[in-house]
UniProtKB/TrEMBL annotation:
TM region positions: none
Residue numbers annotated as active site: D145 (proton acceptor), R147 (nucleophile)
Family: Belongs to the GTP cyclohydrolase II family.
Protein name as annotated: GTP cyclohydrolase-2
Enzyme class: hydrolase
Domain GTP cyclohydrolase II residue range list: 23-189
Organism this protein belongs to: Streptomyces canarius
Stored CDD domains: GTP_cyclohydro2 (cd00641)
Record SUPFAM superfamilies: RibA-like
Catalytic activity: GTP + 4 H2O = 2,5-diamino-6-hydroxy-4-(5-phosphoribosylamino)-pyrimidine + formate + 2 phosphate + 3 H(+)
NCBIfam families: PRK00393.1, ribA
Lineage: Bacteria, Bacillati, Actinomycetota, Actinomycetes, Kitasatosporales
Amino acid sequence: MTENTGDNIGVLGKKSSLRSGAERVVNAPLPTVYGKFQAIGYLDHDRGDEQVALVYGEIGAENVLTRLHSECLTGDAFGSRHCECGDQLEAAMRAVVDEGSGIVVYLRGHEGRGIGLLAKLRAMALQAEGLDTVEANLALGLPVDARDYGVAAEILRDLGVRSVRLMSNNPRKREALVRHGVQVAEQVPLLIEPCESNITYLRTKRERMDHHLPHLDAVAHGS
């Protein structure tokens, strides 16, 4: 893999290729309501997906505050209360700004934990009939979680990052990064206050997918 020639954002104007399949294509300033990020665009040649890393401030190589955010059109763009995805994306962007530096890798191709938008909507329809999110995927003959984090690890390595403080409640995300060669110095909780529309979904993530969501204990069961 092509190594970065520096430890910070100063080298991001260069175009680089990664032998493992992700190619850095463009670096553009992205002013947002949270702060001014650099949007680093990548092409994943293996899957054909276009990916983006939002970089804030001067990042180093170790213990970089990082969020790997799976694409969720319904939550991120439409404000769905079925999940907590949109709130988590907002919280992660605010967190890296408050930190003074960090990265949010927005992972396209991860819609519905990797099953795609239409399949996710079908699963949501089954959930409205009483199935939980795990049962709904299985009823459609689909995996519970089909996401792959290899390209995220490639992007982090291209940015010169060797270890992260990972904003996630999902232990499998941490395991995946470590398996792909990026060390996780700390797993930072990203807890969003539940609402009536997503409490069942969140409980299923905790009870059946091992997500660390201790704040749900304060919510009365069945609310």
